[in-house]
Structure formats: structure tokens, C-alpha cells
Amino acid sequence: MNPASSPSNQSEQNQPLQARREFLKQLTLAAAALLLASHGQVSLAASNPASPGTQIPRRKLGRHDITVSSLCLGGHALGLASDEDAQKIVDHALDLGLDFFDNAWDYHSGRSEELMGRCIRGKRDRVFIMTKVCTHDSGGKKEAMTMLEESLRRLGTDHLDLWQVHALATQAQVKKAFAPGGVIEALDEARQQGKIRFTGFTGHTEPDVHLAMLSHGYAFDACQLPISAIEVHSDAFVRRVLPELIKQNIAPLAMKTLGGNAKPIRDRILTVREGIGYGLSLPVATVVSGITSLDQLKENAAIATAFMPFTASELAALEERCKDANESQKYEPYRKWASYRDGDAAQAAALA
Known about the structure:
With 352 residues, the protein is an alpha/beta fold. Helices cover 46% and strands 12% of the residues.
């Protein structure tokens, strides 16, 4: 008998596959539990509801007893729309029950926050606003507090629902964030002042950076990370970071489900439904969706509204189909974040 084909060796060869299947099973079960936990929670949007059956489902925000829409409106993409189109997108999103709005201090040099602020004027109580502080390598608490005041002014509000440390990419940035006078102190002070409700951090280059942030035991409320059927084959946030977030009861916010630039969709690697559905099938609080037109909003909202969790076998099949796309290294441009460290802000924004 060929030793390579012996029962014992076949068992050893199958162990990674079995472990992967068990991992997917646990994530699917966790996602189902999260969905069940969301039923019966009070909506944040106390406003004109759409017709029955057309509202985007809601999910718990981590350990907290509030819910947010399972689809989140991406602020960077919104900043690419015209003022008129952005207003239509925001109004229709709220009508559909999409009330989780993303943004960042540096998106389009502040235009994204200013545009969103105009679009939600008179509707602030209907929106869960998330924006991000962009201290990166150069700033700490003082700079962060200045950015906070600018974000509040642009968005036309006296408080943020979620304030996140944006685009952490290096271990040095993690060390600086937790050092005396670092941005973590700004999170604490802003919450004490009532200017923010919840805290979090984001990044999309190195899972080890996320894990380093989480190792400090800080009680973050949310964390934004790449999640896709393509990304799972790399040094995966899905495999390494997502379980730790669940363990710490921190709300995972999925991003880059369509590759960050929709190239996997254009190249027919996967469909929009598969990309969004993959993210929603895992235990995340929401999927951040880059939307620049009313048609895109309607398509993505319809997918979220009709969503049914993928089975473990469906998830595995989709991942297998996307394996070659990961190996080609063409479909994760957001992993190339050196531009931020090199000071190329325009390129960094394009990859956000």
C-alpha cells in the first residue's frame, strides 16, 4: 500500500478540511444566534416605516441592547455622489430602515462629513452616525479631540453614536494609540463629555494589528474589518480576528465584502448577492456598503432585506470558487496601505 494513501495519512490530510468545516459551522451557528437575538429589539429609527416586509433587518450591536441596520451606508462612496443624488440616497435609505451611516474625518478632505451633515439635517434622531478619527502616525489625544470637534460641526450634531480609530496599519500605531497622550485617551475623554456613545477601531491591512489592539483589553464596542470570500484565503481577518471579536463581545463591522473596489464583481468572480450574503452569513453587526447611486442602494438593500444565511457548505463552496482570485493578489487593493505611511493621502483615500 502506498503510505500516502494509507487510512492514517488520509485522516491527517483531511484534518485541515475538517477543521475548516467545523469553523464555518460555528460561525454559521453564531450568525444564526445573532439574528435571533436581534428579533424584538426596538428600532433606532422612530419614523415613517416602509411597507411591511421591505425593511432592512436589524442586528444587535455587540454586547449592547440596541440594534442597527444590517446594511451600513458607506461615507467614502457617498462622497463621490452629487449633492442631489446623495440626498436621494440618504432619504431612501432611511425609508428602507437603513439607519447606520459610516464616515471618516478625512474622507474627501471633509466633504463626505459635510455632505452627510446636510443630508441628515432635520433627521439626526433617525440616524446612527459612525465616523472615524484619523490620527494615524502623527497625532494623539490633542489632535483627535480637534478632529472630533470638526466632525461634529461638519455632521451637524452634538454627539456621535460611534467614534472609531481609523485605518490602523502598524504595530507602532497600536503602541502610540495606547501610550500616554494617545488617541485612546481621546476616546475616554470624549465619552466622558457625552460627545460619543460607543468606541471602536478599523484597519484592513494586517490581522496582527487588530489582534494587538484587542490584546490590551480595552472595552471597544465595535471593530471594522475586511470580510469576504476572497480575503478568507489570505492572512485572514475572518479566521483570526472575527473569533476574537465574538469572544470579547465586540460588534464586528464587515467591510470590503465586494473587494473594496467592486473589481471581483466586474470580473465575475462573484455576484453582489454573494459578496453581501457572505458577510451577512457570518456573525457581524452590519455590512458597510459603498453606494454611489439610488440603483445601487436599491439592489443592495433588496439583498439585505431578502437575506437568508448561507449554509456551511454554501460558504465553503463560494470560498473555494474565490481561491484563485485571492492567489492572484488583484482583488484586495486595500491591503496595500503603505501609501498612508508614505504620506500619499490621495491614494490612501482611494483605497479606503
